[in-house]
Design goal:
The complex is a heterodimer of chains A (475) and B (313). Chain A has 475 residues and is an alpha+beta fold. Chain A contains 15 helices and 23 strands. Chain B folds into 2 domains: 152 residues, no CATH class; 159 residues, no CATH class. Helices cover 76% and strands 0% of the residues of chain B. Classes of the chains: A alpha+beta (475), B mainly alpha (313).
């Protein structure tokens, strides 16, 4: 299956003329000596190591601080492509928020038969505590990361909606920082829309989401599980960029349903918590009692409307992969419009007919856990061995409702600097969509992840993926 | 500011200062040990280095004899010695990493780069020459750290907590060094001749990087009571107890005025400074140098606890 190449278009037909948006970059790449590219690659790596932009890989104690490989060849999206994507993203996230308001409220979409009731109510991401609750301004997913893949000139598919705590935005920002240092000339030749608007947009979003009683200058904090979390760098980076305190659970306490942080000046009231902790660990009194990173009583304060949690508790029900399969219907139901972004055709293994199809076609399909993330617990049929497929078949048969299956997509490729030189590698794209009380904001671009191994479709950083800077051309 | 942030800043600075102090002790000891026996030190310089750094008890719990290689390793790289240079740099980085948002990029990079570079030194610093360049490097790390803080940090509570941690640790180090060596200071107002004593004195001064300073300040040959004056009372000398104490008082005052309230830490620190200011070196020797230094160490510890109680919890 020939993949669409971001630079050369449909492979085979390409190889002659680059696509218009890539013309300058293609010329530059043709001229650039391999030593220069290699030198720039090393400079970039040094830069990332020096600023300490590392991540932890779970289950890999020896390498507990690793760098995500960075590829110096940017991925380019032209102005018109982006305009369409942006509209689609706004539509999608508005639908996600409307869906969440609805399932914890009147449940009209269930009564109308858009989404099956049990899929929502028995979903591990569904929080009983939130039934009837309305977070401040009705926003559930303030920060969403929508994973997109491209398959041809015109079509982007949504692969996943990350409605809980999407990460990676620090790489979007740092990648740009490095690229501007390494390739100032390329930035002069291209008109690249700046991504540095993101921190301001994030702060505005979080401030707008404060409880109405918070006043004009709400106190916003970022809540992290601590330095041992894999995304700690990002947590501290974001807190720094938006100029708010980075707190751990032990820095906060709740008194009379009000959240305070412990400061050198005594307790200070907190209005908005951008939390990078899963629901389960937020409050040992409400959720997992063994959580040591949470804040006892936080859920009580939240339900009393004294504090905003971003994202809201229970948003996970919207990024379940089985719910995902209903997204086209959800978008139509809540927005009254045709979805601009496509969904990948999905077989829900909970349905007997689909299950039997999936079991018959495992070697061609990608099978995912409905509540999984990070590329763990999935089967990629075309590259799996016979034994892996059989092992997966057993797991799938034992608990079919826990899985969905999709055709193996021909993810687009993008020229990437690898050991042998510049070669095509598969990429995806995660734009970040911010929803405040006032409006929805999308930073131009997002995080492009690249599967560095030849032929691989897995872009997750935990499994050999790297990142690229993503350029949205502004003219 | 979060109390945890203030705490981490305070400890980041304390660990950096301790690493620097240990490096200076190792440097001075290497010099002392290399003197010809006739002019050198009759005691065992490596055992003395352990005493000066305050790590003797921990060392002898593990090793029977204080030989050069083992002491060097223990003070510089041993992961089981919590005050080894390596552990100090690691603790400093761990603390800094948990409060990165309170640091400037420059300051964080100074700490993080030190941690990255340390690994290369650990692998190579076996011979004397390599070890000497390691010690130079440690000193350059603390200079880079202080310089980054001085040049880039906002002058607000974050900066003051760093300074306080730095000065508390420095005062503690100077006082402990004086405590270990106080017997050297005893022969009051006696000119120290050449040979044995002279090198002990110069070593002591080197350990706190004060040999040249001594000459500039007093323009006299080395006398024990002047050495004591320099390290305890002289405000020009940035490692003297009075100088550290004055800096602590000034940072605590800045905190108090920024926060709009004074507390026990301010009262204690001011009290100690007043007492130091009222002293002369003569009165100090008369009332007993050893008692004075032990008293100061205890007060310094209490001040650390008061700061912690007031701000860091």
């Amino acid at each position: 299956m020939p993949a669409f190449d971001e630079m050369w278009g449909v492979s085979g037909a390409g190889g002659l003329e680059p696509r218009a948006s890539y013309r300058r970059l293609a010329d530059w790449l043709k001229e650039a000596p391999p030593e220069l590219l290699e030198a720039r690659r090393r400079q970039a790596e040094l830069f990332f190591r020096r600023i300490g932009i590392t991540f932890a890989v779970y289950g890999d104690a020896a390498a507990n601080e690793r760098l995500i490989p960075f590829d110096i060849i940017p991925r380019i999206i032209d102005k018109d492509e982006w305009a369409k994507l942006e509209k689609g993203l706004v539509q999608r996230v508005e639908a996600l928020n409307a869906f969440l308001r609805d399932v914890y409220g009147p449940r009209e979409c269930i009564r109308a038969g858009v989404v099956p009731e049990d899929l929502v109510l028995q979903n591990p991401g569904f929080r009983l505590e939130m039934i009837g609750a309305r977070p401040p301004h009705g926003v559930f997913t303030h920060v969403a990361g929508i994973d997109l893949v491209r398959v041809d000139e015109d079509d982007f598919y949504v692969l996943e909606d990350n409605a809980r705590t999407p990460s990676g935005v620090s790489y979007m920002l740092e990648n740009r920082e490095v690229m501007m240092r390494l390739f100032p000339d390329l930035f002069v030749e291209h008109r690249v829309a700046p991504v540095e608007v993101y921190p301001d947009a994030l702060l505005e979003t979080l401030q707008s989401a404060a409880p109405p009683k918070a006043g004009d200058d709400p106190c916003v904090v970022v809540l992290t599980p601590g330095p041992y979390n894999s995304a700690y760098y990002e947590h501290s980076f974001l807190a720094d960029k938006i100029g708010v305190e980075l707190v751990e659970g032990s820095d906060l306490f709740v008194r009379d349903q009000v959240v305070y942080m412990r400061t050198t000046l005594g307790p200070k009231r907190v209005d908005v918590i951008y939390r990078r902790i899963d629901d389960d660990f937020l409050d040992p009194l409400a959720f997992r009692p063994d959580s040591v990173v949470g804040v006892p009583g936080l859920m009580g304060a939240y339900l009393a409307g004294e504090v905003t949690l971003a994202n809201a508790v229970g948003a996970g029900v919207a990024d379940d992969k089985a719910v995902y399969s209903y997204m086209p219907e959800i978008v139509r139901f809540f927005t009254g419009e045709e979805p601009i972004l496509k969904n990948v055709p999905t077989w829900r293994c909970r349905e007997p007919q689909s299950l039997s199809y999936v079991l018959d076609h495992l070697p061609e399909l990608v099978v995912k856990q409905v509540d999984g993330s990070g590329g763990y617990g999935m089967l990629i049929g075309p590259t799996a061995s016979g034994a892996e497929i059989e092992a997966f078949r057993a797991r799938l048969t034992a608990a079919p409702e826990g899985y969905i299956a999709q055709p193996t997509l021909a993810l687009s490729t993008c020229p990437t600097l690898v050991e042998q030189g510049v070669a095509p590698r598969h990429v995806d794209l995660r734009p970040f969509v911010l929803t405040g009380a006032d409006r929805v904001r999308v930073a131009p671009g997002g995080l492009t992840r690249v599967a560095l191994n030849e032929g691989s479709l897995v872009v997750n950083s935990s499994q050999g993926g790297g990142t690229k800077d993503t350029w949205v051309l502004d003219g | 500011m979060l109390s945890r942030t203030a705490d981490s800043l305070y400890w980041t600075a304390r660990y950096m200062e301790r690493a620097d102090f240990t490096a200076r002790i190792l440097d001075a000891t290497t010099r002392l040990a290399s003197l010809p026996a006739s002019r050198g030190y009759s005691g065992d310089p490596w055992a003395s280095a352990l005493e000066s750094s305050g790590a003797a008890a921990a060392y002898y719990a593990k090793h029977a004899v204080a030989d050069e290689r083992t002491v060097r390793r223990f003070l510089a790289f041993d992961t089981e010695n919590p005050s080894s240079i390596r552990c100090c740099l690691e603790h400093a980085r761990t603390n800094a990493r948990s409060v990165r948002t309170a640091l400037t990029v420059e300051l964080w990079e100074a700490i993080n780069r030190a941690w990255i570079d340390l690994k290369a030194f650990e692998a190579t610093a076996h011979d004397r020459e390599a070890f000497a360049s390691f010690l130079d490097w440690v000193k350059s790390v603390s200079l880079a750290f202080d310089g980054a803080a001085y040049r880039t940090m906002l002058r607000n509570d974050a900066y003051w907590f760093l300074r306080i941690g730095d000065q508390i640790e420095r005062a503690d180090n100077t006082a402990r060094l004086l405590d270990v060596k106080y017997h050297l200071l005893l022969p009051e107002d006696e000119e120290v001749g050449g040979g044995l004593d002279y090198f002990q004195w110069t070593t002591l001064l080197r350990e706190v990087s004060a040999l040249t300073a001594y000459r500039w300040v007093y323009r006299e040959t080395i006398r024990s009571w002047l050495v004591a004056d320099l390290l305890i009372l002289n405000r020009q000398m940035p490692r003297s107890l009075a100088s550290c104490q004055a800096e602590i008082v000034s940072c605590l005052d800045l905190l108090a005025s920024a926060y709009g309230r004074r507390g026990i830490a301010q009262r204690q620190a001011t009290h100690t400074l007043d007492r130091l200011s009222a002293c002369t070196i003569e009165s100090l020797f008369q009332s007993g140098l050893h008692e004075f230094i032990s008293g100061f160490l205890a007060e310094n510890n209490r001040l650390g606890a008061a700061i912690s109680e007031q701000y860091l919890q």
